[in-house]
Amino acid sequence: MAIPTLTPSERAAALADLPHWTLSGDDAAINRNVVFGDFAEAFGFMTRVALVAEKADHHPEWFNVYNRVEIRLTTHDAGGLSKRDVALAKAIDSFIP
Which candidate, 34, 16, 15, places its Cα nearest to that of 24? Predict the structure, then answer.
């Protein structure tokens, strides 16, 4: 079964619940940048997210340098933003103080 992308109104509602996330310029993804105290904190965060992402079979695109983690969520199978991205963003937010 195909995964549907969010409608514009669904995207707006999702972003209202995700204040630290921004919509990409093409409306196909959401992004968040997080800064931690050091590399160990950043890596620990990524490890926690990886376990949740693997269980959900939905994986972030991310980039890490020292204490910074840049995250991009999109559903490639849907060709854009889906409910899976919103759910993972909420899970990610739960790991950030």
Answer: 15
